[in-house]
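Still learning. Any example?
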Amino acid sequence: MTSSARSDQRWADKPPDPRAWKGRKGRSRQAASTEQDRAAGGPDRRWVDLGDGRQARASVELKLLPRTRRIRAYLRWSDRGRSPARYLGEVEHATRRENLAEGWRLAWGLGLLATLDTAQTSWAKSPAVRAVMRANKARDTGPERRIRSLVHKAGLRYRVNARPLAALRRTADLVFPTARVAVFVDGCYWHGCPEHYRPARANEQFWREKIDRNRARDRETDQLLAGAGWTVIRIWEHESPVDAAGRIEKVVRGSTTPADEIALSAV
């Protein structure tokens, strides 16, 4: 019996239970990413090859077709402001977890994915460099969690890993919508900390250009948000979480002006 036939039989009289395809309402972006990691079999199994040495992290998306009562799986990723998608096929399991896993199996079967943790597909040219890359997480790092905890204890509420401006594809680590304050906790390696950044010995030109692009993107983000009336606070991961939380509280509560914060960020 084909997958399509099984779907017709299982959901012949009513649509599938939302738990077969819908994500949990109100979940964080980190929870959604963890869900995808588990379904894919690990974070290193979620990458698509974009060519020219570039890769992007993908996700499986489930959509219900109300008329046919079938669930379709798609592979999505981000590439220079676009969000391409590839249709993977129909899935017919009773739970979202099983359907996501099936979607990833279909993606591998179609040859759409590349394994990140190999010398052939990874930007890193050695096990040592790959270890550094893994240690430098993009979000929910130790410094971020400590700062969030301190800010929360101070009585402030915020959004985590959110876009200050919906139309701008830039994500801040903490966002205070009412005060219009966006906080970025920058990793010393990926953002080129003047105190702690050390250039890679292997493939030096590639990594230097990548860090330079990250720095340029940071400057552009600051300018775009400032132009939209937001105050940007940038914190290096090596800074004291207590001092950083104090800076954030002063700005959000209005005891520091945006001009003062620019001066603080430059220290």
User: Anything to note?
Assistant: The chain has eight helices and nine strands.
